[in-house]
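Homework help board

Subject: predicted structure for assignment chain

Our instructor gave us this sequence and asked us to write out the predicted structure in token form, then describe one feature. I got the tokens but I'm not sure how to describe them. Can anyone check?
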Amino acid sequence: YSDDMHAAISRNRLTEAKLLEFSTYSIHTNLLQELATKHYSVRLLLAHPESTPNVYQRQTVEKYLKELLLMRDQYSNRYDFQVRCYRQTASFRGRKIGNQLISVSWFTYGTQRIERSNMPEHLKQSRRPQDLEGHTNVLINADLSTPEGRVLENMFDRVFEDLWATALTLDDVAEGIGLA
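My token output:
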């Protein structure tokens, strides 16, 4: 995550973060830990493992779901940490930190990166027909006090709240796929 996001987290105390992700791959060990230590109220949306485009990405989401269960239990007495999983096709991602900063991006699909990799052929096959990427796409950051930031915030909040309303809780998903 960006230096701007780190600065926004450091400036805010006891506030809320809303995160819309696919697997938490790019934020798990740094951003989530920092939010936990700063006592943020976190609402995190990530993809339901059954909605991922291939076996490899399902396994990735399941791996991070297990870690999120542990993290929630570890920090449950120190801050509000809610996780839900959406079933819709991943297309948009973003992070909103308090009333300071919004970061948005998108997901792209394709197999060219996989084809060029040194990955064993059996793994390449498991990642077809489409591979979803977001962590290598640009993140657009905006200060929420600017007109541009408010436009991005409105879009993000609309998408986030729509997904949140129909998403399954972390416990329900973990039980449904045998992680609980």
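Reply (TA_rk): Your tokens look well-formed. For the description, you could write something like this. DSSP finds seven helices and nine strands in the chain. That's the kind of observation they're looking for.
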